[in-house]
What we know:
This protein is 28% helix and 38% strand. By secondary structure, the protein is of the alpha+beta class. The chain has two domains: 6-214 and 314-388, no CATH class; 217-309, Immunoglobulin-like.
Amino acid sequence: MYEQSILSASSELLNVSDSRYDNTSKTCQTVIAKLREQANEASIELLILHFSSEFDVPSVNAHFLNAFPNTQIIGCTSAGEFDGNGYQTTSLVAIAFQKSTFACSTILLSDLSTLDFDTAYNTARQLRQDLLRKEKFEQYQLMFLSFIDGLNMAEENFLHTFASVFGSVPHFGGSAGDDLKLQATFVVHNNQTLQNAAVIALIGSRRPFKIFSNDHIKTPVSQIVVTQANPETRTVYELNGEPAATYYAKLLGIEEAQLTPEVFSVFPLAVLVDKRYFIRSIQKVNVEDSSITFYCAVDLGMILTFVQMGDCIDSLDNKLAELENECGQSDFVYGCDCFLRRLEIEQRDKNKDIAKIHSRYNIVGFNAYGEHINSIHLNQTFTGIYFGVEHV
């Protein structure tokens, strides 16, 4: 008999008339009650939380630890959340991996500034040893998941370093958000909620799965050269010898003051790597000097390409259909979806269309400030993992 291996529960939008703490307490209790209706604590191996930064952030995991004291809890703040009903913001989603199908080990890296190969190697060894104490899995049954502070610009070093120590184990995850405030993002690990930190989970699965990433880039339009930049801050000062924001606005035929995340989501820039385009999403325009700060790495001399986008809905639907053919009927799809995709879908009034896809494939996750797949830091993608219903 089929038993769903991953459960989820989500909250409604925040009540603006309640205090921050009351909102947090009521929301957590509601989601906890929904989880308890589906499973008991003893059956849950891993609990993932994604939630708005409008909550009292440190107390979110405290509520869940109190309710599930023997369960591993990880997660991060987000720039939006989603489930089978589609997108929403200022809410909380919880995802529960069942012990009947999964085993995992988790760890917190509390200071990303000290991350080097030795730290990564020892971290990976500890995760493998902890998982082996629970259960033995074949290589093809393993994956690792990461959440990282989305504002400290450490993704590239983090991903490259851990790719070298995990080898062929597939990796996915996302960068924490803060509802587009760009002030502070947090990761969660059991009783700790930290900035400048990352959480890793090594997961073994008895169901077939496939880690994937989907974008909707259609065609390249024109190329732009980064002629002045600071790679450490991911800031571009000049494009084609002109102030970056001024040139980008002129390219779009709008005023510099009109450059907003809604514009960035529809008119992105990309970089060509190994015959494939990867979007370098714009984080913000710095009005004091007309520079542009990006979510991904940029450098002097880099060639950026202004790209035409296809249909976001069709692209994801086609990808999921391919995965269904490969892995069978969907048990659950866990996703890290760039917040710029949500903004684009909202602007194009396609919320109902994306909700239908979420419902059909049982998709739950969060809107991120960047997505992780293997050693690559991505922008404006839906990156996640597709689980089939059959045991392997």
